[in-house]
Amino acid sequence: MFNLLKYVFTNLGIDLGTANTVVFAERKGYIVNQPSVIAFNNHYDVIAYGLEAKDMLGKTGDRIKVIRPLADGVIADFVAGEEMIKAFIRSSSVPKYRIGKVVMGVPTGITEVEKLAVIESAEQAGAREVYLIAEPMAAAVGIGLDVKGTDAHMIVDIGGGTTDIAVINYGGIVVDNTIRIAGDEMNEAIIRYIKTKYNMRIGEITAECLKMSHGTVSEKYNGKAVTIKGLDVQNGLPRQLIITNSFFIEAMKDVVGTIITAIMNTLEKLPAELVNDLVDRGIILTGGGALLNGLDEIICEKTSLPVHVAHNALYSVAEGTRLILDDFHGYKDILLRR
User: Fold this and answer.
1) Domains of the chain (ranges plus CATH)?
2) What tens digit of pLDDT does each residue of 213-231 get?
3) Residue 284, Cβ neighbours under 10 Å: how many?
């Protein structure tokens, strides 16, 4: 009977990120990798989600509302979040009545109210059982670390809405820190800097594309020409600007500095017995923010620890949920309690 039920229901692993959502389905693989955006009309009917909805950001009239339901790594708009999760699951061809367990990554600093919102959204989407896992723990599993072992590991997961920092040992999080400063704040910093320095207004999507294509926080990677298209602040007319990518260093220095300070504060709380482990193994960066040119080098310089970017930085949390589903009983004790 147990083996039969295994094939009746499909278990899902979900990295529900502020910027992107990745969904893994048993026996189907990764079925969703889309921006966490949804669009409604005036009657609150869903008209687009994921990449199609993201392409509509900043381009619609009053009759269409484009929403990013997650803020700082948690559901801020419950109705939109629930509809987005449902839309992603529907796109996977997994019927609502066939969804079994759902394992979802969440920030370490999530509140009980925020946990409840995530759980209820997944349940409304059809999940029979919902389990939450701290994102740094999921990321550690996803990059192949032995999270239940005797060696301590430090994970810094830089997503869209939060930076989650955790030292993991013996299957638990020894010290952790979550700051609601991450990729979105980098985008906002770029927008502010270009407006202040060059009297040009650009949108969020443009800022994100600039960061991903040309962004750097190290002098080592600067000097590359960047073309920026936007609106002149003074006359409102379109114009373009060609400058070098060195402006990113100045634009994002406060955001990067805040992330580094959070890492340093976490290290200060570290039990002395774990220092040797981190000196040997260093810090592992995961999440989209980990891919920012030069960030690993700056963190290494400031902390005097080796810093490595995970080979699957963008998908570490999602891969962790997949591995947890593969060996659910083996990993059940590292899941967050409801």
Assistant:
1) 2-138+316-334 (3.30.420.40), 143-181+261-310 (3.30.420.40), 183-251 (3.90.640.10)
2) 999 998 888 788 999 999 9
3) 24
